[in-house]
Amino acid sequence: MILFHVPNLNERWSYTLDFVFAVRGINYKLTSSEEEFSESTLTKISFSDWNIGSLLDERGLTKKNISKGNWHAEECLTFNETPDPLSSLFFVLSRMEEYYPKKRDIHNRFSGKDSWQNQYNWLDKCICDRWALLIIKEIEKKIGVSLQVKTKEMSLIPTFDIDNAYAYQFKKGKRKLLSIAKDLFQLNFVRLKERKLVLAKIQKDPYDTYDLIESIALKFPVKIFWLVGDYGKYDKNINLKNPGIKELIRNLNQIIEIGIHPSYISNSIPAMVKTEKEKLESVVDKKIISARQHFLKLSFPQTYRNLISYGIKEDFTMGFADALGFRNGTAHAFPWFDILENRKTDLIIRPFAYMDGTLNEYLQLSPEEACHRIGSLHNEVLQFGGDFIFLWHNETIGNKGKWKEWSKVLDYTLSLKLKERT
After folding, report:
1. In degrees rounded to 5, what are phi and psi of residue 19?
2. Which DSSP string corresponds to 163-207?
3. Beta strand segments in 316-367, E
4. Where are the domains positioned within the chain?
5. Which residues pair with 157 in a beta bridge?
6. Sheet holding 43-46, edge to edge
7. Which superfamily is assigned to 156-166+207-421 in CATH?
8. In angstroms, rounded to a whole number, what is the distance separating the alpha carbons of residues 419 and 250?
9. Would you state the pLDDT for residue 102?
10. For residues 342 and 337, what is the distance between their CA atoms, to the nearest angstrom?
11. What is the average pLDDT value for the chain, to the nearest integer?
């Protein structure tokens, strides 16, 4: 046990030092009492002389001049010209920069390319873990005692978003006719032939990769997030009223945890999350406690406050669509901190390291290049701990169209579990 003296002990200090110490298995205690600190026989150290953590003494949002600097020869952010790894950690972990008005993309999302981590080439690093270990190292120098850092054994967690359960199957009426008309107009005879074979039950639907997902779930803790929202421009899944879709979900639910994939439109009408969650719960016959936003639409603090109000306990949205790496600087699960209310919440954030579409569509990597980038991200998590979570879709793992040969990228990622054992 080690005792730390913090002159202005508050929620931010507790939250940040939990990430530094508790996440790494170090028992510690905080006090703001000089008398308690002076009289304690524990190994102890005071942060009052360190000239770091200024952001932790504040409330709400304050304007800062931010740049890059060095603290004990290691890179971190500077706040008003002062290098500060503790404030840097809180700033990145809480996603404070996303609370400020900044440029957004066409889906009103904060882009990875606009983040401070990207500007300073930290996005593919578990930068918050690096800062935590830097602080621990300096403490060990001062007290002359090893704090015995423990690294959590890493889990490989494949996750799948089901945005469109089938390409042709169960699609009827106006939606089917419009799709056929589009293919005829574009002279897309490949799709016209494929649809005919699927509907005649001669060929498997190209989006029907559920047997593969189930086989992966026998070896890994797979998570699925199902889009339930009503049909719209960006919400195109098949309605839950369809008996075939209900049967599919119930079968998958026997071996895989299914979470809600809040619709694109729910970001404009938050109450729809409750409606969508209840629809999915009626199919799986249990409470839904996990979520990932469709299109990774995440707005602070509204999105997470909304999820909390409807009973969501963990969220898997923390990652960028346009960039690989660690949006919040770590692969560890951690509680969300509501900056405007200045408090730690019970919502657990489960960050992911990469998404299939980022590799192929945004960065336009080859499968071989994608594997190389994934290997580097995995090595980072292997070194600093946490869970290696990654995001695919049922339609991207079937080796069809622009995803031809991409199944080997998923296979490579899954094979990294063997690397951990060697």
Report:
1. -65, -40
2. S-S-SSTT--HHHHHHHHHHHHHTT-HHHHHHHHHHHTTSS--TT
3. 334-338, 343-349, 354-355
4. 2-93+124-143, 156-166+207-421
5. 389
6. 28-31, 2-5, 43-46
7. Glycoside hydrolase/deacetylase (3.20.20.370)
8. 34
9. 80
10. 7
11. 93
